[in-house]
Amino acid sequence: MRFCLVLCVVSSLSFGAEGSIPHRRRHRRVAAKAVAAQAAAGEAPAAVTSVSLSKTAARKNAVAAPVIRGGPWDIPTFADSTEGDNVDGEDLTIRRAAVEALGSYNGSVVVVDPSNGRILSMVNQRIALSAGFQPCSTIKVSVALAGLSEKAIQPATKYRLGGMKMDLTYALAHSNNYYFATLGTKLGFDKVSSYARQFGYGEKAGWNVPGEQPGHYPSAPPKNGGIGMLCSFGEEVQQTPLQLAALMSAIANGGTLYYLQYPHSAVEVRDFTPRIKRQLNLGPLIPQITPGMRGAVEFGTAHRAREDGPIAGKTGTCSENHTHLGWFGAFNDSGSRKLVVVVLLTGGRPAIGPLAAGIAGDVYRRLEEEKYLSNATAAAPATLVSRQICCAK
What angle do CA 299, 302, 305 make, to 5 degrees? Predict the structure, then answer.
């Protein structure tokens, strides 16, 4: 009996929090004691490139059971997510697609043009402009970029972790917690934090976006699980949908981190001028990270987003303060017009990353039906509408 229990725990740590395990366990957290025990016992090798964690060692470091946080859920799963939005200046076609795709779920959809940082639509501004939410597994994109930048990992190399071999593409596609907890331990908090702040964590993503808040990035490793929990679930990090949209935009456009701007009138759209926050050295890294993000959609945790055209993205599922969270950040990886779509769902157990991915995929599908993604013509003021006539659900 004890052997079976330990084996189940090791399996949950090895295969990640989403996609590969049954739905009722998708939101289980990496056990803090397991990560701490691994570091204390010296089981993790000196370099990630030589990781070899035996089944015996994995069993030794396992704890009795992962923890499911939250419940009863304090936030409703369904709500009118358009209530209170001011959409003057938004793009009509995108606004309608986002609202219809989100439907009755309690959440936010943010759509950004990665070529210039313009926010084309922001559904549920109360959530999008809030103090932020735990990023769950979407933090793994930042950690992967840090690991590639520091040459701590080689994308094509398979490492042995928790009794199985996996490369970066598999780890991203299946959101493997063990891989990123181990990578974070090898990098150390200072390097992980430095890259995260370069990518925009802990600061406002927008330029004069009324009501926007900077989120939060911790100044020290989290007390619950340390660097392993931070790198697998974003422990103690508060991420806003705008921050994730800005980072996804930088990956989509080749490395330019724009300030996100949210025009509120046809005049502001006409006079729109992109503002660059900083250039990120992502050029050589993008071809190394996008296969895993496309894999998430094609065969991994984000398969509900799969459409005719390739989409690259990352899901996230966890719970925070009696609220279940489902994240998905993505960009279409083909066509004459790229768009970044970020979906955040809040509420009860249905609010999971795979569902958020399905909503984002629906946004892309609706826009493709409108021939929006194949039309490179910039949005004209005629496509802008006021909130009085736009987008009732």
Answer: 100
